[in-house]
């Protein structure tokens, strides 16, 4: 563990220097890692583990699109690809990577395969933290661990293929074997994490649900839509409104923030822009703070979990989500975006 100062607060971080891939392979050399579910995280984690030299199998529903995707990705039926129950029976570490709602349906089946000494692995604190709603209560004689990549499974795989990594949170809920720590850290390194930040299941799910509903996904779309509408109402063309709301942010300014922070990005803009941004950011913070507080309270009360479980458990949940995504895609702002993307000089 390295002690690192985060803005004045000291935290322990696991690094690849102290826990290299060789050590991770040694720790897991006798394990069969069964990745259950092949949606977004499933492929990223399973393929990274396989390419890193771990013993991995995939469990997926037969006769499904994702089964075919797994075959196309190189998993071999009967050798490294099985139906869910068979994979769960074979695995000594079970990576439960169905959707959070799907985990509830599968739980009664899966728990029968959690024999003593196995490890149950999650990439989200959801199932365990909201146990009153999910019914996911593991037996006492298995390890219960978490590695949650802080980003999309798609990015986890892309960054791995680019020779980089994506940082993850890790947590131990239950250490039945005395090996939970080495297992979880080895898995974190194996799935392609760069650094591993310690947390617990509850903190992981509360922060993750807040982040994706907030600044990462929900809030960002809301702010884009509001600014775009203001510009359009005042007679600006769709291309001008989109460029000034989204394109410049993703193409020019966010890479500067990612590289060296907000003040660095500001410093690379005009003093006119700096004056305005420094004046206005606090107004935006004050306007949105009550919404963030409401959001966190809803997460902590289990209301976001209830909403997600109810809506993602209906037989047509995927079609319903796709309908709403289509509405977003077909809005003028994102249609303008599609046209703007085609005009990127490097495209
Ligand atoms: N998507 C991400 O990049 C991401 C990032 C970090 C953590 N996570 C967490 O990782 C886990 C997996 O997320 P995901 O986005 O990969 O999941 P997903 O929504 O893509 O679903 C994964 C698989 O579950 C299957 N599934 C859903 N309901 C099922 C059911 N009733 N029976 C059998 N299979 C069913 C789906 O067909 C799919 O193949 C979740 O706990 C999620 O919160 C996801
Ligand atoms: C990729 C995210 C948003 O970080 C993850 O939390 C998810 O739920 O997909
Ligand atoms: Mg999430
Ligand atoms: Mg997340």
TrEMBL record:
Pathway assigned to this chain's UniProt record: Amino-acid biosynthesis; L-valine biosynthesis; L-valine from pyruvate: step 2/4; Amino-acid biosynthesis; L-isoleucine biosynthesis; L-isoleucine from 2-oxobutanoate: step 2/4
Protein name per UniProt: Ketol-acid reductoisomerase
Residues that, per the record, bind Mg(2+) 2: 208, 244, 248
Pfam families documented for this protein: KARI_C, KARI_N
InterPro entries xrefs: 6-PGluconate_DH-like_C_sf, 6PGD_dom2, KARI, KARI_C, KARI_N, NAD(P)-bd_dom_sf
EC number annotated for this UniProt entry: 1.1.1.86
Recorded family membership: Belongs to the ketol-acid reductoisomerase family.
Coiled-coil ranges (or none): none
Positions annotated to bind substrate: 270
Top EC group: oxidoreductase
Domain (KARI C-terminal knotted): residue spans on this chain: 200-347
Cofactor annotation: Mg(2+)
Residues reported to bind Mg(2+) 1: 208, 212
UniProtKB keywords: Amino-acid biosynthesis, Branched-chain amino acid biosynthesis, Isomerase, Magnesium, Metal-binding, Oxidoreductase
SUPFAM superfamilies membership: 6-phosphogluconate dehydrogenase C-terminal domain-like (SSF48179), NAD(P)-binding Rossmann-fold domains (SSF51735)
Domain KARI N-terminal Rossmann: start-end pairs: 10-199
One Gene Ontology molecular-function label: isomerase activity
Gene Ontology BP terms: isoleucine biosynthetic process; L-valine biosynthetic process
Presence of keyword Ion transport: no
């Amino acid at each position: 563990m390295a002690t690192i100062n985060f803005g004045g607060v000291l935290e322990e971080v696991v690094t690849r220097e102290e826990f290299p891939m060789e050590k991770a392979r040694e720790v897991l050399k006798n394990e069969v890692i069964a990745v259950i579910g092949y949606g977004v995280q499933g492929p990223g984690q399973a393929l990274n583990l396989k390419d890193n030299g771990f013993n991995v199998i995939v469990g997926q529903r037969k006769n499904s699109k994702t089964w075919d995707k797994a075959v196309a990705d190189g998993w071999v039926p009967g050798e490294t690809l099985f139906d869910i129950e068979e994979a769960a029976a074979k695995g000594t570490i079970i990576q439960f990577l169905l959707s959070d709602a799907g985990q509830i349906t599968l739980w009664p089946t899966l728990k029968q395969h959690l024999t003593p000494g196995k490890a149950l692995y999650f990439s989200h604190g959801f199932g365990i933290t909201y146990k009153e709603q999910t019914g996911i209560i593991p037996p006492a004689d298995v390890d219960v661990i978490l590695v949650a990549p802080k980003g999309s499974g798609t990015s986890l795989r892309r960054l791995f293929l680019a020779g980089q990594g994506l940082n993850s949170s890790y947590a131990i809920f239950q250490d039945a074997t005395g090996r939970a720590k080495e297992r979880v850290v080895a898995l974190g390194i194996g799935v392609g994490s760069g650094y591993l930040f310690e947390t617990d299941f509850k903190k992981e799910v509360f922060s993750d649900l807040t982040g994706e509903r907030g600044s990462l996904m929900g809030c960002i779309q809301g702010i884009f839509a509001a600014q775009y509408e203001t510009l359009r109402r005042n007679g600006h063309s769709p291309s001008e409104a989109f460029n000034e709301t989204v394109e410049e942010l993703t193409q020019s300014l966010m890479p500067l923030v990612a590289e060296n922070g907000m003040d660095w990005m500001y410093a690379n803009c005009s003093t006119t822009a700096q004056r305005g941004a420094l004046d206005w950011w606090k107004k935006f913070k004050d306007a949105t703070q009550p919404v963030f507080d409401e959001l966190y309270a809803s997460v902590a009360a289990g209301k976001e979990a209830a909403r997600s479980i109810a809506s993602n458990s209906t037989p047509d949940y995927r079609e319903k989500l796709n309908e709403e995504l289509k509405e977003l895609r077909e809005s003028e702002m994102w249609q303008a975006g599609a046209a703007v993307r085609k005009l990127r000089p490097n495209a």
